[in-house]
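re: ur question from earlier - yeah i can do the single chain one, its not a big deal. heres the input i used so u can compare w yours
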Amino acid sequence: MVEERVVEEAAEKNVEETVENAMISEEDNFAAMFEASLQDEHSLKKGESIRGTVVAVNNENVIMDIGTKNEGSIAVTEFASLAIDVPAVGDEIEAVVVSAGGSVRLSVLEGKRRELWASVDAAVAENKTVKVTVTSEVKGGFRVDLGGLQAFMPRSEVDTHAGMGAEQLLGNSYDVAILEATHYPANIVVSRKQPLAAVAAEKQAEFFKEVSLGDKVTGEVKRLADFGAFVDLGGVDALLHVSDMAWRRINHPSEMLSIGQTVTAEVVKLNAETGKISISTKNLQQDPWEHVANTYEAGMRLTGTVRKLLDFGAVVELEAGVEGLIHRSEMSWTRQDVKPTEVLAEGDVVDVAVLEIDTEQRRIRLSLKEIAENPWQAWMTEHPEGSKVTGKVRNITDFGFFVGLAEGLDGLVHIGNLSWTESGEDVIKTFTKGQDVECVVLGVDVAKQRIGLGIKQLSDDPFEIFIAGVKRGVAVKGKVVELGTGAVWVELAEHVRARLALREVPRDLPALKEGDEVEAKVIDVNRKRRQVDLSIRQLLNDEEREAVRQYSQSVSSEETPSALALELQRKLLGKG
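and the output i got, formated as tokens:
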């Protein structure tokens, strides 16, 4: 009995141990499974890149088995933004963990972004270019896309030359250099100009090795500016200045060239240090001045086109590449300070006369007024010297006044031609601007464009009237009207005065005073100075000589002159 009980107790104990061990094992398995579950969940980290299999696709998400308790999901819109097809069930794809708490959110965009940043960092490290697409114009430059990353291209980094606009850039793809790239905050700055400049520098170095001054080159017009055109000579830009395009005057390059046009030119300037190249199409054309000396001569009348107006004149094209200048002084006979813009306009076709040709200086002097009749010559023909004219006083000056005679023609009445007898300073005060006056034409200087007029010439000159009846050596009578230093003035007739020097008055005569009546001999008449000189001394000497002569004649008629007569004759003759 005891043995049976022992056996039963042992059996019961084994059962209890077995049950207990089974319970312990089940608890351990659950704990392990729970621990494993927790371990799976916590093994996913934000930003981690994992690979999984698509198990389901709906309108909003792509569901993936990523080997964890919870499945991961990717928004369908991410595939559209990458322009790739939505994966099908069973496809394996790689994504980045965005969120691992509870539901697992995944992103294929972040993965692509990481790839792009990796390529950007590699490009910066290796100094390589990346391809971008210009998407929009923003302040200061342009927004560009690097296949998912946004970058900024400053306007100054667009091209090696200024002037490339948004219409030429938007939507186009270019190789660019990365100037700046920071992850946090995300910022990428790129340059299209830098790789272009590098390529241009290589081609430029090669160009300067192979090309010399005077060589002919062919290129394509790349850009037009006001001062010329930039021509692409196979990756090297050259300037075709507007003055080097043709022998004729060109106001803007668009008159001869268009973008994309092929041109052949001669290299005229090379500067390896600055990299500047200048070319000329004009040098490949015949110089029209080579035949100017045989074609043109002074006095010719030609027809030309006004190409440019300057402050001092107008440039007239006589033929392609041959121009002449009409100076402002050659535009009008009557207007001395004419402005070219008041007479001509650019594009006018005008008749001109050739005044002078200087082939060495490549200059031709032209005249517009020589084509028209010289109004001074015409006026002189109709109004010869001595004729009378009438006009209005236009302007009064200190030296006289100007009289309007015709349109643009004035004559000058000098202050000395106002009166025969009165002071011009006094007489000019009696005239007013706008007053009608009658004048006598004194002369016309066609070359200097001057007309001389006189007022006093309307009446006879009292001086000329007087001296017309008086000759040198005759005796005249007059009245002393003015006492001066070394001379007195004697009035011989109305408005006619003569000068009597005191040395011509004998000392034994009483001193002269105003009002004295005198008789004297005319010893000089000067029409230019309008002066008559007198001498009482010479008059008395002449009278004495005449008395002696007459006495001698009377004595000679006697047979024997008395001693008294001989003595008187001796004294008189000795006195002379």
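The chain has twelve helices and 30 strands. not sure if urs matches, ping me
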